[in-house]
Amino acid sequence: MAGNPLLSDRDVDFVLHDLLDVGSLCRLPHFRDHSRETFELYLRSARRLAREVLYPSYRAVDEAPARLQGGAVTVHPALREIYPQLVALGTIAAPRPAEVGGQQLPHVVAAAADLYLMAGNLSATSFLGLTAGAGHLLESFGTEELRRTYMARMYSGEWSGTMALTEPQAGSSLGDVRTRARPTPAGHHLLDGAKIFISGGDQDLTGNIVHLVLARIEGAPPGVKGISLFCVPKLRPEAGRLVPNDVKVSGLIHKIGWRGFPSVVLSLGEEGDCRGWLVGQAHQGLAHMFQMMNEARIMVGCHGVATAAVAYQESLEYARTRPQGRPLASRDATRPQVPIVAHADVRRMLLRQKAIVEGGVALVLTVAHQADLAGHAEAPEARARAQRLLDLLTPVAKSFPAEWGFESNALAVQIHGGYGYSSEYLPEAWLRDQKLNSIHEGTTGIQGLDLLGRRAVADQGAGLRTLLEEIGSAAAQARQAGVDPAWPAAVERAGAALAETTMALAKKGLSGDAEGMLLHSTDYLRAACILVVSWLWLKQAAVAQAGLARDAASRPFHEGKLCAAQYFICTELPDLERLLRLCRDGEDSYGRMREEWF
Ligand SMILES: Cc1cc2nc3c(=O)[nH]c(=O)nc-3n(C[C@H](O)[C@H](O)[C@H](O)COP(=O)(O)OP(=O)(O)OC[C@H]3O[C@@H](n4cnc5c(N)ncnc54)[C@H](O)[C@@H]3O)c2cc1C
Predict the structure, then answer these.
(1) For position 332, what pLDDT does the model report?
(2) Which of 239, 246, 480, 504 is most buried, most CB within 10 Å of its CB?
């Protein structure tokens, strides 16, 4: 579709203002220089750039991926035109404080703008997203010297950044990182090792690339407690100029999606001269890196929502314009065909897409909003409460868009019928892009283990209790607004069931049966995703129901919201009970299954 809007402005504005009231953030001292107008200005510029510049280049970038020649990666020429425009918008440091060159925008506003940019062209925006996270690591843990030399140039877009964690034997299992770091009397370390899948690990867009590398200082204890974080530039400043730092690109991954964004194999220290500077404390590298990983998980959630959203808009337009068949009640072949949106089954698919996409928008923006409150709310208790929710919801914000988003992207292919299965149409490309989101930044399996094994039971379930309180107030608001009372009742029941199951599983874990506790952790994660998105649909339903009575002109929008809320709560939420039963009863088919029985 030539004029794909990428996302519905009306929906994004609804979430920002009607649901989250982001304007009230301007009352907090940290955001006092902002106003609803400055938020709008930033968002408007992002929308325009996404629609007029990024999206029109998407297909060309997908069709001609980055190339590796003579040890250097060349990106698609369109990206060289786009990159400076994204930098000029200020996306890299949008939420960072003014004193480090940022715009001090709330994360929630920056994330809303990112959704458009990502939906326009995911590869183009990814260079900046990683640079933001890597720069923030230096801002939080780097020495003054590192911040001055690297962070400032990263935030300005002159240099880019990467996260270099993964090694061939250490993917999900980061404790097995082997890259070595030998201290030198000069203060830096000499690194040697290999990193794989490093996104943005080489490109010809920026004058330098700053890798944030996990490595093990000689003599460090095994496992995660022996990992340190290093700043390893591609080119290091020396006597007033930049010289190669013995970081070689030894391979380019041939990816099925995100094809404009090169992921490479890096070889560090082949010539014994790869210098790295310690970031933060020795052996605390993974703990420091968790700052970037948590941010990146929310960013991946935004990728997932954006990729599902652009495909939803495409299938919506297709369904409105593709004539095929006639209504069930009228098979008269002399009558003209109807557009496929007239068929209930096509509306089923579209409504599922809408429920996933708009539920996802509400989810990632809610989580970004909690990040703003956790950092800047005035009362310490308000900050602590937001932090609890943020910690609990991060794996959900990463996994719901990835998993449900993939299903939504598959529906976009389905709605296009045979044309969807052809590369002449874009839904197949977005399906390929979407698949990565359940793999990188910790696979869905790892998110499930993290949620159930750590976050849901941390501090005796404090995060979960906070979520239940939120559900309780959304239910009260929905009842007061006149929403069908069956919906709040169902969401509250589901919240209580998840809490009860969590307690039972935690007991199992405490009794020493960790395997039994975590056997169904992916099912638990799915149940948590369904609960959280149902809560957010209930909140949206309450606002929409109140809007119906107040605002006749917005009736179609609010009716659409209520149908999508009904869809999610009445057709997706019931699956939670089945998933929790699996967790509680410990259904053990794959627990018992042995490798040799396959
Ligand atoms: C396109 C792309 C870009 C990437 N970009 C980066 C990057 O910029 N920087 C970076 O450092 N890394 C990057 N990665 C690496 C990515 O984070 C890893 O691929 C991911 O963490 C999984 O590791 P792995 O590929 O080794 O798979 P494995 O860890 O081998 O996992 C294989 C399967 O086993 C499951 N599994 C593994 N361990 C467990 C366990 N303990 N319990 C249950 N299930 C388990 C996984 O869920 C998965 O389904 C990228 C990967 C890709 C594909």
Answers:
(1) 87
(2) 246
Domain ranges of the chain: 9-155, 160-283, 444-590
pLDDT at residue 1, as a whole number: 65
pLDDT at residue number 24: 98
Q: 314, 3 in Cβ contact below 8 A?
A: no
Mean pLDDT, residues 572-587 taken together: 97
So what's the pLDDT on residue 3? 87
Q: Provide the CB-side half-sphere exposure for 153 (13 A, CA).
A: 16
Q: What is the C-alpha to C-alpha distance for residues 1 and 75, in angstroms, rounded to an integer?
A: 25
Q: Tell me: pLDDT of 232 over 80.
A: yes
- Domain 160-283: which topology? Butyryl-CoA Dehydrogenase, subunit A; domain 2 (2.40.110)
Q: Which residue has the CA at smallest separation from atom 31 of ligand 1?
A: 172
Output the DSSP codes for 520-573.
THHHHHHHHHHHHHHHHHHHHHHHHHHHHHH-GGGHHHHHHHHHHHHHIIIIIT
pLDDT tens digits, one per residue of 312-329: 999 999 999 999 999 988
- 396 C-alpha to ligand 1 centroid (Å): 18
Burial class (CB in 10 A: 0-12, 13-18, 19+), 221: exposed
Q: Which of 123, 128, 197 to mutate to test the pocket of ligand 1 (most atoms within 8 A of CB)?
A: 197
Which pTM was predicted? 0.98
Residue 52 among the catalytic residues: no
Check the CA dihedral 137-445-406-524 and report its sign.
negative
- 3-state SS assignment for residue 223: coil
C-alpha 332 – ligand 1 centre gap (Å):
55
Domain 9-155 and domain 160-283 have a common topology: no
Write the CB contacts of 171 (distance below 8 Å, at least 6 apart in sequence).
Answer: none
Q: Whose CA is nearest to atom 7 of ligand 1?
A: 198
Alpha helices in 377-513 (DSSP H): 380-415, 417-420, 427-435, 444-450, 462-481, 486-510
Query: Which CATH code of 1.10.540.10, 3.40.50.1980, 3.40.50.720, 3.20.20.70 fits the domain covering 9-155?
Result: 1.10.540.10
- For residues 400-405, give the mean pLDDT: 98
Q: Which atom of ligand 1 is nearest to the CA of 195?
A: 11
